[in-house]
Amino acid sequence: MNHRIAEVIVDDGVEMTLEHIGEYHDFLIEHLEVGSGLLINKSTSYTYSFEAQQHIFLPERIKAYAVYTPSVSAKLATDSVVMMQRKKLPVTLKTFEDYDEAMTWLKSVIQPDADTNAKA
Fold first, then answer.
1. Mapping DSSP to helix (H, G, I), strand (E, B) and coil, where does residue 15 land?
2. Which of 34, 59, 69, 98 could form an S-S bond across to 90 if both were Cys, CB 3.0 to 4.6 Å?
3. Can you tell me the distance from the alpha carbon of 81 to that of 116, in angstroms, rounded to the nearest whole number?
4. What is the per-residue pLDDT for 109?
5. What angle do CA 14, 19, 23 make, to 5 degrees?
6. Which of 46, 48, 57, 39 is nearest to 94 (CA)?
7. Helix-, strand-, coil-residue percentages of the chain, each rounded to 5
8. CB 112 within 8 A of CB 37
9. Domain tally for the chain?
């Protein structure tokens, strides 16, 4: 999307392993600035290995995560990962049932001056 906000969509049926998470982190580090935001689009069904869940967040690069959860199963899966990481969750994370609300929130967190500058 830009160097401050990106959207992540995982293919349907994939199990994210620790190796996948390493590749994912390498990509984020290469393409996003420090303090960026991610829109995690959970419109597909996928899982994480236990090890992958332990390392999913990248606080040194990602400031905020907006998670689009269009279904009950997507919301429950997200809540499960967040609950496991809650005590060490180093970033701002919020779930949304509406895609546009997720993007609007993420932009307001990552680029809070953008709307003000556009109106000026």
1. strand
2. 59
3. 35
4. 94
5. 90
6. 39
7. 45, 20, 30
8. no
9. 1
Confidence category of residue 101, pLDDT binned at 50, 70, 90:
very high
- Report the range of poorest mean pLDDT among 18-22, 37-41, 51-55, 62-66: 51-55
Decide: 82 and 55 in contact? Cβ < 8 Å. Answer: no
CATH code assigned at 41: 3.30.750
The set of residues, in sequence order, having a beta carbon less than 8 Å from that of 117 and lying 6+ positions away, is none
Residue 83 tokens read as 């609950």
Alpha helices in the chain (DSSP H): 18-31, 50-54, 72-85, 99-110, 114-119
Task: Identify the domain containing residue 67 by its residue range.
Answer: 5-119
**Which amino acid is it at 67?**
V
Burial (Cβ within 10 Å: 0-12, 13-18, ≥19) of residue 100: exposed
Amino acid at 27: F
Q: How many other CB atoms are found less than 10 A from the CB of residue 90?
A: 12
